[in-house]
Amino acid sequence: MAAFQNSKVIVTGATRGIGRAIATAFLEAGATVLGIYTANEETAAAFRDECHTHTDRLQLYRLDISSESEVAAFYQQVEERFDTVDILVNNAGIRRDAVLAMMPAADWQRVLDINLTGTFLMSKQAVLLMMKQKYGRIIHITSPMAHLGFAGQANYAASKAGQIGMMRSLAKETAKRNITINCVSPGFIATELLDGLPPAQLDEYRRLVPLKRFGTPAEVATAVLFLAGREASYITGSVLEVTGGL
Ligand code: NAP
To answer: Which of 21, 123, 174, 240 qualifies as a cystine partner to 217, CB 3.0-4.6 A?
Structure first.
C-alpha cells in the first residue's frame, strides 16, 4: 500500500507509544515522516534502527514542542527542505497526575504547556505552510478524559478538552483553504503513559472498557491514517473515538 506516497507528515512524539505506531504506519504507506521527540535519545535511535528499510523517508528532530523558538526553528528547516507539509499529527503529550488540592502549579503548567500550547504552536506553523498549497490535514490526539474527567487528572483533562475546543475553532478558520482538522480520542492504550499506575487501577480501567482490553497503538494509527487520507475530505471538526466502547 502506498496511499501516502509523496505526502510529508509531521508526527510529534514519534519515537514511542502511539506516535511510534502512527509514524510507522505512515512510513509503510509510503509517506515521508518528520518525527519529533524531546529527550529520549535511546528510544529515538532504536526507532531509527527499526525503520532501517525506510531511512530515506524518515527524519527525526529533537525539540520541545512547548518552546515557540524551537518550534519556529524546526519549521524553518521543514520549509527550507520540503517547502510545505501535508499532514500534522499532534500526538506528543504528558501526564503529571495529582488531586487538584495537592497539585503543584508547575505540574499544572507543564501539562498545559506541552499538551495544549505545544499543539497550538505546532498547528499554527503547519497552517501557514498548508495555506500555501491550499491543502492539509491536522489531527490532534486527545483523550476521553476531556469529557469524562478522572480524579487526579484535572490538568491532563483540561489540556485534552482544550485541544478539542481549539480543533473546532480552527476547523472553521481553515475550511476555505481545504485544510481539515480533527481529533482522535484513544481510550486506554498500552503504552508507557500508563506506566506507574497501580495494577489494581489498571484492572479497574480494563473492567470499564466494554471490549474488556486495552487498545494497541496500531489500532489508534488506523484511525489517524483514515482521517489523514484524501478520501476523508468531508470530515472536519470531529472527534473519532478509539476506546473499545468506553
Ligand atoms: P508516551 O508513550 O509517553 O510517548 C510520549 C511521546 O511524546 C514521546 O515520544 C516523547 O518524547 C514525546 N514528548 C513528550 N514531551 C514532549 C515535548 N515537550 N516535545 C516534543 N515531544 C515530546 O505517550 P503515548 O501513550 O504514546 O501518548 C501519546 C498521546 O496519546 C498523548 O497525547 C496522550 O495524551 C494520548 N493518549 C494516550 C492514551 C494512552 O492510554 N496511552 C490514551 C488517550 C490519549 P521522548 O521519548 O523524547 O520523551
So the answer is: 21
Ligand 1 binding residues, C-beta < 6 A: 12-13, 15-19, 36-40, 43, 64-66, 91-94, 114, 118, 141, 143, 186, 188-189, 191-194
Which domains are present in the chain?
8-241 (3.40.50.720)
Instruction: Return the half-sphere exposure (C-beta side, CA atoms, 13 A cut-off) of residue 97.
Output: 12
Q: Is 156 a catalytic residue?
A: yes
**CA 132 to ligand 1 centroid distance, Å:** 29
Residue whose CA lies nearest to ligand 1 atom number 18: 64
Residue 200 vs residues 182, 196, 205, 207: alpha-carbon distances, Å: 34, 11, 9, 11
CA of 128 to the centre of ligand 1 (A): 25
State if pTM tops 0.85.
yes
- Strand (E) positions, 42-135? 58-62, 87-90
How would you class 31 by CB atoms within 10 Å of its CB: exposed for 0-12, middle for 13-18, buried for 19 or more? buried
**Burial of 237 (C-beta count, 10 Å sphere; 0-12/13-18/19+):** middle
Q: Block means of pLDDT (10 residues each) for the chain, length 246 residues? A: 91 98 98 98 97 94 98 98 98 97 98 98 98 98 95 97 98 98 97 86 93 97 98 98 97
